Amino acid sequence: GIQVEQSPPDLILQEGANSTLRCNFSDSVNNLQWFHQNPWGQLINLFYIPSGTKQNGRLSATTVATERYSLLYISSSQTTDSGVYFCAVDNPTSGTYKYIFGTGTRLKVLA
Amino acid sequence: NAGVTQTPKFRILKIGQSMTLQCTQDMNHNYMYWYRQDPGMGLKLIYYSVGAGITDKGEVPNGYNVSRSTTEDFPLRLELAAPSQTSVYFCASSTRPGAKETQYFGPGTRLLVL
Fold it and tell me: Is A109 helix (H, G, I), strand (E, B) or coil?
């Protein structure tokens, strides 16, 4: 099945710094989403982005489907950005809407 | 509008016991999902449903059963609980997938099987 790898696995930033999180996938995808899991375990959808670029405030994401990767940019990080960031993909082989999650990037933002 | 609600929040089971994890959404979403998250890992799809009466297996369905008799409810049944089922279980729902698909997650149920 499709493999999803995220990097880096862990990231520590000072408040105000910028960061780029990467998601590589091993096959073509139909759908791709980015999620944030806060330190209390709540999961929030950030972007639905199977291709192209989207921005939402300090966050933006770019997916280059032909090269099988997606990037999540966090600018001017805040302590509330701490948590784990997951990307999830699906494709015709795994089954449409049968999302496969990466193992995540654990981000800690220091005040 | 409560979104996606799950009960219970935490449960301890003995090996071999059974239980049902409840999930309800009030957003009239067609699609609903059950995931499990083991410590330090991403989520794995157990079952999903595209509408009332229609369910399908995900990546890790063994040991679980689901039903979808209404749009709102999507219970997950554990039969003969095993220590390997110790995990955090998340229910999610989404609008009909498309250009603006967004999955909304419940707060999770933490299950410990001893």
Answer: strand
